[in-house]
## 1
Amino acid sequence: MNARDHILGRIRAALGRTERSREAARAEVKATFDARTAGPHPLFDADLAARFRREAERMSSTIDEVAALADVPAAVARYLDARALSRRGVVWPALAGLDWAGAGLAMETRAAGDMDLVGVTGCFCAIAETGTLMTCSGPRTPAATSLLPETHVAVVPMSRIVPAMEEAWALARSEIGELPRAVNFISGPSRTGDIEMTIVLGAHGPYRVHLVLVRGE
Amino acid sequence: MRSQAMFFKARAGDKLADRQLQANLGKAKSRFVEGRAQAVVDYDAAPGADFEALRDAASAIRDRVLANLDVWLETFEDKARARGAEVLYARDGAEICRLVVDIARRHGVTKAAKSKSMLSEEAGLNEALAAAGIEPVETDLGEYILQINDNEPPSHIIAPVFHKSKEEVAELFARTHHTPKKDDIAGMAREAREVLREHFMSAEMGISGANFLIAETGSAALVTNEGNGRMVTTLPKVHVVVTGIEKLVPTLEDFSTLMRLLPRSATGQRISNYVSVLTGVKGEGDLDGPEHLYVILVDNGRASLVGTEFEPMLRCIRCGACMNHCPVYQSVGGHAYGWVYPGPMGSVLTPLYTGIENALDLPHASTLCNQCGVVCPVKIPLPELLRKLREKQVDLKLRPWRERLALRLWGWVAARPALYGFAARTAVRYLNRRAGGTDRIRALRAVPDWTAGRDLAAPEGRTFRELYAERVGHEGRTKR
């Protein structure tokens, strides 16, 4: 007997599975998928943007705010210069249309590599409950851009801030249908507490995450 | 991993006498406890939030899957296959190793970058890979430290080097990396980052566990703070997920509920830095992601718990809260437990997965104080399960005959109230005399191990039943 039949057979025996109960179980699976009941969670009906900012800062992200998408390159340049960081980097193809060169930045539209110091991404949406970015991988939104560089800058349209993960899933279902290969929830720079439970920022991913909130979007 | 759980008593003794370990444990142990407590208070402060309701909902989600585990597994398989994943099953650790080595050979893999996986510890996967000429590289900082320290086993399921001081790590790094010894933790973390970055870029295969499998979408969810989980599932051309059959949750909403509990219970975080929901292989036009995805669903003892009194243990989401809060774990650390899983959850799982006769001490390595049960995010009644394992040991005649005889005798006396009252009175008078007017008994021959480590508090006078009878009398009721 192969491993699959062996394991499933043991589970079925333990559950006393019959053809009838199997049908009932399948019906329950379908009902569960149809209902998609959200569990108990806090209510954030007030100012989502304020909540998002507060939680993101708590997770060690830094935050800037601009009026329109066209203002983003200048804000990114300001941030990089203030910290004496490189003006070169990689940017999501989805954001290639912004005037990066006009802000004095050398942003390349390609997959991020090991040597890239700055990665600029957008996000699918952002979650107020935990100050989290949700990114969906795809040809125009590669996953590694937010991972390999030491500095990650993300553009967050304020209209895309949702209360919690549940609303983010609902948005994904209605706008893209099937989940992309990788949905990444990112909450601040990478960190480790493995040595003496002492938190150090910048483990394998970025040392810093900077969010540029866009009001007009 | 070969279990050393039968030597718990001796190993625990050694650990208690290990001054370095005791100092390290003393430094670390309160952080997780305080972190979780604060996280619960903060969560409950938000309008509409109730941490207890969250625990109830989470255990219901886990139970719902376990009640129809076969059908949920089939559902997951269908969804995952439809997205290009190959779903495989493994009965035991040896089968995991065989499958992973086969996959590695099929794709010409020479190096595998690994994100932390306790199942890989169960299987001894690193040894099997190395024996097949494939270099396994642990990339979680804690696991990496253990690997370069001659493959030392982890002592905690989410903080593998809980037992080590930074000085010990600094020396290990200087020795292994041939670099000057560092004294700051940030410097050590950067050094490991640089070493491991090269491995991430060159490994042809990534191996990870899964914190959850999502039936609705056929996805594997991975939670890390360091970002190594993202690295090993994004960069190599092959990704292998090795995970237990019990990790399934029905929907993305259920996953969201569990994600409110996991980081808070584990580290006291509101959310972990990276939560990845991974579905299928690299798509058309994608710039990154694996071309081949394998999901290995592992039994290794889990299926035998389904439908039994121990089934609630399969709810476990591996947060580590039970060990963080366990006075026994806090005193002896994780290595004393002798297998992959320490603390209360380990004391239940080790006998169930490796044989009840191979871990006789573990169900007794608990005061049944229920700290673990109170903090468990999925409400596993850990003390009750430990007690059931103790009963099983007695039923299977695995306890020494003296102990069994004593228990039987006690049971016989306890069922006879008058005799019990007499015996209790006699014992109290005797212990009183032994204390010789003080409130402590230094040594008692009947329980030498117990009084070797501490004094026995002497009874203050009369038995509970005597005092109770007197009180009822005072209140004017009729004495029987």
## 2
Amino acid sequence: MTTERPKVIEVKHLVKKFGNFVANDNLTFDVKQGEIFGFLGANGAGKTTAIKILCGLQSPTSGEIKVAGFDVYRQTNLIKRNIGYMSQKFSLYEDLSVSQNFEFYGGIYGLSRKQIKERTSYFLEKLELTNEANKILKEIPLGWKQKLAFSVAILHHPKIVFLDEPTGGVDPVTRRQFWEMIYEAANEGITIFVTTHYMDEAEYCERVSIMVDGRIEALDTPAMLKQQYGASSMNEVFLRLARAQSAEQ
Amino acid sequence: MSNGAVILQNISKSYKTVKALTEINVSIAKGELFGFIGPDGAGKTTLFRILTTLLNPDSGTATVEGFDTVKNYKSIRNIAGYMPGRFSLYQDLTVEENLSFFASIYNTTIEENYHLIADIYKHIEPFKHRKAGKLSGGMKQKLALSCALIHKPEVLFLDEPTTGVDAVSRMEFWEMLKKLRSQGITILVSTPYMDEAALCDRVALMQNGHVMTIDTPNAIINAFPVKIYAVRSNRMFHLLNDLQSIPETEAVYRFGDVVHYLSHSKTFDPLSITRHLDSLSHTEITVNQSVPTIEDSFMLYMRKSDKFNISQHDN
């Protein structure tokens, strides 16, 4: 059933140090095209540092890392053009209208007027927001904003989209609608790299890595991880790994 | 009702055209650990600002330990501890300086009430000379809680203390709250994490400025009107759509590694799920009755009324 999909993220021996502090301690992993990859870890485990490196915003201290086929040391601009990014905090411009936000981001990613128009109406129709296109973003309910922000992040059909806690504070119905959008995008071949504090969402991922203290302590499908740790849920797996760490300190 | 520690009667509040709170009625008993559960935009922060006298309601009355939030606001400020959602300590003061600042504005000292915060503060005391801005998220949270407690408040207001915090730190935080509760402090806490409801004595489920229900977590779960079936198959991706097409379907949604299926029919036979999926060539089908959670209840209330559902599209 699983034909070998190409690797779109290849990380070998990634190390990132800030002075004496090792934020990323020899990370090695791959993510495949169209995969939904959950990147979990406690606060301060080193997730944000790794994501910044993968997005071409920060150089690693050492290691061999390719994102969308490009080198993170020398080809950061090519990386940025081929990825999308969305977080709970920074998403869209509150005082632009819905369609202006699409236009702005489409322009940044170098889409033509025609492409922007087509992609905008495609997403507005899908979200049933066509009638709200000219509304200022401030007036749009939060749940919809998150779905809009995701649409904008994949407007230019990137190879990979990075989602940093995309569903924080969102109601349970919208949260699930959001995940349906993630599945659809993955089905179209977009790779999803997602962090979350909701452990039920870890179950929705194809594979999950769990970072503890700068290292990847576990990486597998949710089913295998639960089996490996004799746990009934990903929450239990997470607590076992991250708790063992805080007991050590 | 009249001897509640915190009482809200018909509280409403609007910001321009947005109705933040609509006729909220809640009575919280002395010593209770009470949770306001709901997503962003539910009105939790507005409610906490009214109770901590930082904001006046448009209509209705609220009292804290018998003091009116509008007329007797000064008295409330002496007996309330407040931890706002956004980290609000002085980033360029040290841990110890922040704590002694909050103690001194309430005319007390760290020494006088040390016993109250000892359990929490001892985790960060080794770093007492570090600037608050340099603390990790978990440590900031412990310092903010210590500062909210240092004047021995009778009522503690914690606005989303665990938002953005990982599962381990969240669990530790709730263990601290349980200890505080055993000291008799009334605690009001808000959270968007549905699973934290189970740790409260009672909860109010909030959405879109409304309280949808108030009860103990168990009573809310026991009141769930229909059976929930947890369904799995080899084709999880198609499972949602394929289950939708069963005529008796009330709702279908993902829930962790299973899909929850609810039927509106009183005489629903779960075997019909298996038969239906079988006919659509699913294999490895499992259908088990499942215990409802607060999240299931929350979604049920959202579906029941449009006024609770701001994202309105049902699928």
## 3
Amino acid sequence: MDPAPSGSQTIGPFFHFALTTDEALGCLAGPDAKGERIHLRCRVLDGDGAPVSDAMIELWQADSDGRYNHPEDPRQKSHDPAFRGFGRLATNDEGVSVFETIKPGRVAGLDGALQAPHINLSLFARGLLNRLVTRIYFAGDPANQEDTVLSLAPEDRRDTLLAHPDPQHTGVWRFEVHLCSEHETVFFDV
Amino acid sequence: MNAYKRPDPAGQPVLQHDRYRSTIRRAPSKPLIVLPHTLTERTGPLFNHDAMGETDHDLTRQHPGEPQGERIIVAGRVIDDNGRSVRHTLVEICQTNAAGRYLHAKDNHPAPLDPNFTGGGRAMTDENGCYRFVTIKPGAYPWRNHINAWRPAHIHFSLFGPAFVTRLITQMYFPGDPLIPLDPVLESIPDEKARQRLVSRFDLDLTEPEWALGYRFDIVLRGRGSTPFEE
């Protein structure tokens, strides 16, 4: 009989000294990375609207041309070598992590259609027995209309997957993760 | 290439588990949406052995002096649920010191810190999926989940595997710990056998004479199934 996957358990509140000591992981794109450079401000709020100040956020995204540095991607060989694609930060006392990255390109999706630009987000925290997975899309991108994953989310909750440009700060996008509330973010079972 | 299998829910924790109080205002209240595996989910960060420091896997040698406590060896094999080795993948660990105290400003358990112990380690699996750490046996500690609540001694394990979908954070427990049957965190996994798989085994073959006890902890990540992707 094949072995079953090990069960997930919470990261707990006290992981910082081991897992988030490398602040360079807040930047997914080296100085020479191609594409539109952005700052992505992610904020996590619990069911009472209180900031979640003990979470760890991980991001995974394609480069500016929609390529991953991974053997599963048929276009791996031409990926942008200055782009890492992976980020990891702890949230601060306001429940916020700010990542520096580039806006991802479009990646092949199901049925051959291209997906809209998106970033996969994993959230780990005390009280989360398994990670929560969501996706960040960019508000106003015309490709959002035809994205097959976005269309899986109930229409009235789809906007929880959108990052919005900060009207005060050019190049800054804001994304809020709402746990367990009326405005609960759409989370995915991967 | 074939799609990654989805695990049996009985072997994974329920997200809303009221006896673990922190889940109540944090775990999702609405059903998760099943996400088909696109290229984004089938890829993931890959790490390089060259990024490992010489003492990253040996938590007893990260400071000028030796830490207090019971020196142990924790080793095992990372495989997927088809039984195949997961090679060259990053394994990170995170734990308390021997007294049950985390090196963290917000841990106010009145147990001593150890100037010679941090509690973080990293290793890469080898060609056969094997990893090995040298560390100190962590202590049990009280938490305020309920009256007289104590977490069993445990080590947090973080693994990536080959894809976004194979990411796993779990906890390793120690055999014979009387706190295990009382623990709301472990209890969140419905299947008893799945819970037992998170308890390491004492292993005399891993144990080194006049040096350290050995505990074996094998980890299973999700593997690919027999059906192809839908693209």
## 4
Amino acid sequence: MRKQESLTEYLDWPLFGALIAMILMGLATVYSVAFNEAVPSIFNFSEKYGRQLFWILFSLFLGLLVFLIDSDIYRKFAIPIYLATLVLLVVVLFMPAVHGAHAWLGVGSFGVQPAEFAKISTSLLLAKYISGLTVKQQTTGTVLTASSILLIPMVLILLQPDAGTFVVFTSFLFVMYREGLTFDPILLKFVNAIPGVRYKETWVGSHFIPILFGLVFLSIITLLLDSVVLNLNLFGFALELSGSTGVIFGLLLIYLISWLVMQRFSTRRERTRMMVVLTLGLLISSAISLGVDKGFGMLRAHQKDRIELFLGLREDPNGDDYNRNRAMAAVGSGGLLGKGYREASVSSVRSNHVPESETDFIFCPYAEEWGFVGVLVLFALYLFMLFRIIVIAERQRAAFNRIYAYCVAMILFYHFAINIGMNIGFAPVIGIPLPFFSYGGSSMMSFSVMLFILLKLDAQRKDVLR
Amino acid sequence: MNLDARRNVILVFIFLVIGIYLFKLFYMQVIDETWALRAQEIAEKRKEIFPPRGVIFDRNGKKIVTNQTYYNLMMVEDSIQNLDTAAFAKLIGWSTEEVRNRFKEIVEGEGTYFNKISGKRTPNYQTIRAYPFLKELTLEEMSKIAPHLANFKGFYEVATSARNYPYKSAANILGYLSEVYREEIEKDRFYKPGNTIGRSGIERFYEKELRGVKGIKYIVTSALNNAIESYADGKYDTIARQAPPLKMGMDVELQTYGEQLMQKKKGCIVAIDPATGEILSMVSAPSYDPNLLVGKRNISANYPKLARDPNLPLFPRPLQAEYPPGSIFKLVQSLIAMQEGVITANTGFPCDKSLVGCHNHPSARNIAEAIQYSCNPYYYMAVRRIIQQGVKKNNFADAAYGLGKWYKYIRSFGLGGIFDTDVTGQRPGLIPSPAFYDKWYGHHTWAFSTIRSISIGQGEVKLTPLQMANIVAIIANKGWYYTPHFVRSIGKDGALPQFEKKRWTMINYRHFDPVIEGMRRVVNEEGGTGQMARLSDITVCGKTGTVQNPHGEDHSVFFAFAPMNKPKIAIAVFVENAGWGGTWAAPIASLIIEKYLKGKVSDLDKEKRILEAQIAYQTNN
């Protein structure tokens, strides 16, 4: 009993408080958006708000259970937990498809999405694995193992297909970057294969992840230009290029300019080195640009549509861009102070203008009801939560705890950024929930468990000697 | 390597995203109005309800223009599920191929727009919108389809209203409706694309009176445009109101009868009630069934046919055929000459054929005889006295002075211009003024000898049948007229104010008696040219005319009023290429008069002869 008291004592109350505030705001919004005059009681499970209340209570109960278990098991059992999740992710592929995706495991209306829990188990295993490494120990094997921990569930999730969760998994890359995971071992193998070149580390390898995001940006540019035919008129030579060729052409230009600049300003010794970096950069960029171009052609129709609409390649307010256009109209009509609670005329479930307005598009009714001021409050709350998690992360003695905390922060941030981005035209409509806000048991439970594991780890941080 | 610095990379990333998001949200919610307007467009929908157009009655309270409910079979592509094309085609009596083509046709019919972003032409067609699959089905047609529609998701019926003309006549008077043009929508926001607007005739002139008051219903709609609930409990809604009925002065039975008499002939009949100026009938032959031009489907099928018909059924002869009036003009000349005092009722002139050609008849000893014999030299003499009054020393100046006076008299008959009335598409005809001849010949270069042919209604003078019928009405009234018009009253209001103003000519009523006596003799005395218009118990006063036609057989003209003592109908009849006025125009006029005054005709042989006659009419088309 003494130990139990000490646990509540060490609970991080600010984070817990923010969590409860978020949950209550979400519940209030679900109540408003799905309100049924015939059943005004929030304790009636026939309505969505009733069920959401049940999920919240059940999630808090799960949180309590998590709190009662010694945090040591997460590190100890990270591998079995991860493997079990993988099994579930495989099993779910053989379940009947719901809305075109094999994502649900379970019977009838009571189902869970293994992908939700895969986030936790991947976080745990990644934390366990990386915490056991030091920068100097890194080899090709360690890099590949760390990447595989990420890639295996990602591939399985893409097979469902669940593009949203797939994208969320890339948040782990930031954690890996934060923890100094370098891709040098792999990169050096290639670079040092070139005669006369001998490096111990490369800038590209250690900053691989930001560079990767740069390349994603490049890919998006490629897609944007995909359907455009560029007409170039160079010194009397009329040149017609397809979009992707144009991007490669542009990259080549940048390469040449950099090369000229280098010839002029750098020493001979630096020159060789930078030439390698530049040439590699050009080759990889071109390859990715071409790959994106070809890969886009192979995507499924509805994914293609979403990407096209996301990139603004098509404008069709009543067609495929329908959801987002309506969501944006709902958000935009909120004004500074909002229309008032339960006055969301565009995004209420009953008016049915914004589909999924109680789940993926829950930000719509919230922003419509409370306006920009409400948005500020919500953003402040999320930001507070994220910063609090990072503060918690940085005060951990154990690397495992810190890495796990960063995982949680980045997952929450990803969900937040993509979900709200969906509502304001900054992200494709890929159907991921707003944590602690959206209606739905699976996400409520998984986020609660995820956060309570963090709270528990934090509460027990002083037990850890390392 | 200091990894703690990398925490800042992540923090900067988070701050950047949140900052950009807040900026965008602030812009969307607080600064930019477009999303709020879009939201309004989505959620609070104005639904405009168009009332059926006002109905139209004739002078006897017979409904001549009504509305009939038609049905459109609508389809929403997104709602269509597992369409059994074969069964559906069978239901609507088409082949499966036709059904497939119709789908393509709808998509293509919507056209495309240029998408600036993709740089491609993109169809306007949207799968969530409703489009008419079949248009303008009758109740009968729809009742066969409707019960089975439940089996074909995505198809439903919608009722629309369209004009119906139970008497199948008066197409030239009533006009027709057609879809509004884009410019009309821009000019008057009452209309929405696909609405109809009066395109000619009464439908056009009284468009604002007939269209009624549009109702506006504010509704909250779902994503698929289904109404969910009325907005604010209908607080802002207004109710659509049908326009009050129009009552016309026309007698629809008479109009229909006139069109029958004129079948297989070209020409026109204009009948006016002289006491009120109401047009009783205005036939433009050949006529056509106004129901042929109801609805887009009919118009596109029938309009080209009518327009290509060599008999020109769409040409509004009573209003736009400008004929030299011929002998009929002599009545007006008689009146002016008497009013000017250049002759009296008993002035006689010898029939001097050296002045102008004439037929063989005794010399006219007075006005009545001059009219009875339609003596050309008589009017040569009489009109010369009007034009050359000897007031000015210079012969040319004298002619200009005389014609100036004459012109004023003529204008007081409402000639030489168009009537300010609800008869649309009038042509003014031509009454030459001194200025007209000055321009033509030069100032002081013309005299009566130059312009003498106007004295017998030839030469430059041109009148429309409507103007000629109004001359008869003036003679019947002995000096005044009301502007000829169609509509007697709009709802509980009366007619337009300009129809209630009595317009006086410059002729004293006394001078009409000898003219009327002459007209009586034309019909009722042996040797009169209009004996075929004679009726046993009604005194018809008339005047024949023959309009010279340089392109072929002369046009037969007759005009008349009856009864002599209390005129109730004034009528002008033109039969193109029918030769002398007494043969065809006079009997038609008498049949119309008898039909109007007594409700039936007694001389069935006369009627039969007219109905069977085919004059200069091309049937092989």
